[in-house]
Amino acid sequence: MRNPLRPRPPCRPLTALGGVLLLLAALPAVADIYAFADAEGVVHYSNVPADRSYELVLESPPEPTAGSGEASLRIPLALINRRAAAYEHIILAAAAANEIEPELLRAVISVESAFNPRAVSRTGARGLMQLMPQTARRYGVRDSFDPSQNIHGGARYLRFLVDRFDNNLELVVAAYNAGENAVERYGRSIPPYRETRQYVPRVMNLYHAFNEPVGTN
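Below the sequence we write its predicted structure tokens.
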């Protein structure tokens, strides 16, 4: 699309975008917005940049499929393990049914809810694995506060992501947070969202910690 309004001479090409960005930011973001000013000062916008002249001026937010990993990871691993013990039989059953590692399930639950089955995020994600309502429906979860339904539904989603991203666990975890479409849109890489860039190492660090033999540092 093309903006016929020209920035005044003293303005540098993209400094004239401020008002437009305020308007765009007030609308539901469905894609990244790029822009560049041509030699005549006309500003062009696109959600699919045609060349390197375009600069990213508005980043779309993550597409929520699960929670945002709001649970604090400053909880000692020993305490997390004690909390996890109450749900270990469900975790092992869900992991076996979906052929995924129980350590991955434990790590996701730890970051998402710190094993609080009644957790609700600011975006409406619920339960141990912080399933968004649409994700819960997608995987047959009727009651997201039921630990068994929630964990089995989250495990089914993780299995889908493991298959989609060829066992690349960092991409799997990124997609669990930001949505599989966001990972695809950024060339099957971790999307450049601050939340997701923080979320992935948090989950992966716990995943590796859960995989360490007992008694090792």
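The first strand starts at residue 2 and ends at 3.
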